[in-house]
């Protein structure tokens, strides 16, 4: 922590000597946790964004209340750094806002450090009591943007997703610490959709839903060194709820530790016609600690089992490799491939799998799945 702080501070000092830097305090921000900082933030952003040279924006220590903020580009430079020492807090009551902090049409932006607190408690209470609630806000959204780095961000208690990456390319999230209670509804860690070249590394994600989820059009995604749990694991999907979805391709999930999660690595698709696909997926060196469904492909996904379409999934799953997956399952079936009767899963590869249930070999279940197993395989392959 101290090292990161020192590094950031030194970095900031060296930057401020040479580059334009805009401190939100100079635009009227008050670190009292009450006064709305939206205007000062956006004025400092406008100055940073209009600079024709690399520029930086500074949010000092303290607690800043922010109603909502849209950091919009395109900007006049592609080297913007936002240094955050303090904490940004969202309204404690919910509204119809669907994104709290949004970066849109930006390119070449680094967001360094900082804590953001979505204060989702009131919204979760609404959702869990089955009232008619608005859709809830993602805490931070990166929309239609390119080359964005989010480094060392701490995100707490989002209403909905903590981070949403949508229609963007070249997004890196490193050293994130994301947390919300295990029973908070739909507080996914990071959701990636219609985006390519997304990297998530060195992060800890504890949530009430997926640690990372990948929707349609997620391609060239690299996830490495993540601790996930509590939460619902790392998911591709759900896919196929809407017709004609874009495919998901070239996904790597490596060196991830799952602890007490509902799933480990899961691919979930609705049982409905579609033209989408999932291919070229590598799951490698994963540790499962008491995970309910360590390896799962579910092509009849239907949460809550209400109004299920009950059709054959049109999403074609192929070339999915599971290499070196070890640990403990919290249920007897640790490996489950429940694939589409009209689009068999094909080219599934299992290599060096060791999953136990209560210190005994777990079980594997296959339906409509084809592929190969090699190396040490426990439970024995059903492919
Ligand atoms: C970019 O620079 C021009 C000319 O200085 C200015 O008029 C414009 O507002 C700037 N654009 C942004 C997005 O700030
Ligand atoms: C797959 O994605 C990775 C980044 O995650 C990229 O480095 C690699 O070039 C991609 N492979 C192909 C074939 O596009
Ligand atoms: C889907 O199947 C479930 C369980 O088999 C059943 O209860 C439900 O009525 C079916 N839904 C439709 C739309 O047919
Ligand atoms: C098993 O692997 C071999 C060689 O990679 C491949 O030719 C074959 O199609 C695979 N079998 C299945 C059922 O996927």
Provide the descriptors you would attach to this structure in a database record:
Pectate Lyase C-like, six-stranded parallel barrel, mainly beta, binds 2-acetamido-2-deoxy-beta-D-glucopyranose, polygalacturonase activity, 383 residues, cell wall, 3 helices
Can you give a write-up of this model?
InterPro entries: Glyco_hydro_28, PbH1, Pectin_lyas_fold, Pectin_lyase_fold/virulence. It catalyses: [(1->4)-alpha-D-galacturonosyl](n) + H2O = alpha-D-galacturonate + [(1->4)-alpha-D-galacturonosyl](n-1). Belongs to the glycosyl hydrolase 28 family. May function in depolymerizing pectin during pollen development, germination, and tube growth. Acts as an exo-polygalacturonase. It is found in: Secreted, Cell wall. The chain is mainly beta and 383 residues long. The chain has a domain of 174 residues: Single-stranded right-handed beta-helix, Pectin lyase-like (Pectate Lyase C-like). The protein is built from three helices and 29 strands. The chain has an eleven-stranded parallel beta sheet with strand order 5-7-9-12-15-17-19-21-23-25-28. It has a six-stranded parallel beta barrel with strand order 8-10-13-16-14-11. Strand 26 and strand 27 form a beta hairpin. The longest helix is centred in the N-terminal third of the chain and has 17 residues.
